[in-house]
Amino acid sequence: MAQTIPQELWDDIVDVLHDSPDDLKSCSLVCRAFVARAQSHVFGTISIGRAPRYEYFDRPLQAKWLARLIRLVDLMKCSSPHLISYVHTLDIESCDAGEILILMAQIPWSRVRTLSLRHIPVQELGRVLDSVHMLVSISSLQRLRLESGRREWSMEDVHAIFTHCSPTLVSLEIVGYGLKPNSLVNLPTSDFALAPSRRKIRDLRFWNSPSVVDLLNHPACPFDCSSLSHVRLVWMKPNPTLNGFLHRTAATIQSLHIAANQEKFDDLDLASFPAVHRICIDLFADSFAVYRLLVRWPTPERISSICVITSSAHIEYLSRTRPCGLLDYLDYFASKLPSLYRVEIEVSMTKLQPGYRPSLSRQDVHCGEGYVLLMNTANNRRI
């Protein structure tokens, strides 16, 4: 039967089940024509979460958890190496267990485009640093997220990780990285501004990592931020170094997200961002700060797209307190932005029951895993 139907049609059928792992596993056992496509979805994203806290005090359970990871590594390296080419996203939350990094670095990843490393153990960095370097240097890597868990790092170690990043990297997200004072003094002083190996970063996101900006401003930084198109700042207190970095890169920034409850950014010269046509707004932040941001924008007619970031609790609150719920806020933004034609809404779904769909009449809503995406492309101000 499989030979009478084009493989592309079988692939389209399997694609419909992309968000149902159990169905995909069944497909891979039913028909040979389903196997490759089903496995590509099942193994497309590998997410290694942290072991339950009690397991750290129960050695048998911890050993069992680690044994599962060893089997995964053996599966990909020995019995089924073809699975490696299916993996495009690798999310390692439990980097504080150094063995995880060492195991994952043993796999010759070839198609990974997105890598997330969380809670890298500073206390045993010497043992795992080579593994971190191997992971961030994956030849196909485009997006990298590094989360430290609010631990202080030396500038040399962070610089070493940045230096080993793949030349194909275009998106960098730094979360909670604090750098030890005066750690810049040991970096090379020669100017690498013209070095051809510098990675051109186009998407840069900071979460509570103000001191990393010092490294980005240093001549030895292996990243070229002269072509930034998107910048996101969350829980970043303004300072001369950060403001200088923003003004230095402002000419090319097209999408800007500054947490609206950061009132101290009121002094930021918004006129220095001439290319911005998309802004991100935190609805769960201070609404007056959002208002100030919109009122101060020197060229509101250039803003054609906004991304509204909110929480499920806030959505439910608006639905109870306003006649049209979230739509009231969207109409308000539209009145301030005359060229607005596209709205994206990111909503945390963690506190909502499965199958919950917010009441958003007049909109085309797509509910995805962990978020709600809403788009409106009407050529008028009203959403």
What is the H-and-E element order? Answer: HHHEHEHEHEEHEEEEHEEHEEHEHHEEE
Using only C-alpha atoms, the radius of gyration works out to 23 Å
Mean of residue pLDDT values: 75
Q: So what's the oligomer here?
A: single chain
- Summarize the amount of helix as a percent range: 25-40%
**How much strand?**
15-25%
Low-confidence stretches: 350-373, 375-383
Number of discrete helical segments: 12
Can you summarize the main beta sheet?
11 strands, parallel
Short description:
It comes from Mycena sanguinolenta. This is F-box domain-containing protein. By secondary structure, the protein is α/β, with parallel strands linked by helices.
What is this structure's SSE topology?
Blueprint: H1 7-15, H2 21-30, H3 32-42, E1 45-48, H4 59-79, E2 89-92, H5 98-105, E3 114-118, H6 125-136, E4 143-147, E5 152-153, H7 155-163, E6 171-175, E7 178-179, E8 199-200, E9 203-207, H8 212-217, E10 223-224, E11 230-234, H9 240-249, E12 255-258, E13 278-282, H10 287-296, E14 305-311, H11 312-321, H12 326-336, E15 342-348, E16 364-368, E17 371-375
Parallel strand pairs: 1-2, 2-3, 3-4, 4-6, 5-7, 6-9, 8-10, 9-11, 11-12, 12-13, 13-14, 14-15
Antiparallel strand pairs: 16-17
Helix pairs in contact: 1-3, 2-3, 4-5, 5-6, 6-7
Overview features:
383 residues; alpha/beta; 11-stranded parallel beta sheet; two-stranded parallel sheet; 12 helices; 17 strands; 33% helix; 19% strand; globular; disordered C terminus; F-box domain-containing protein
Tell me what you see in this structure.
The protein is α/β, with parallel strands linked by helices and 383 residues long. The chain has a domain at 1-42. It is 33% helix and 19% strand. The chain is built from 12 helices and 17 strands. The protein has an 11-stranded parallel β-sheet. Strands 5-7 form a two-stranded parallel ribbon. α5 (98-105) links the parallel β2 and β3. The N and C termini lie far apart (49 Å).
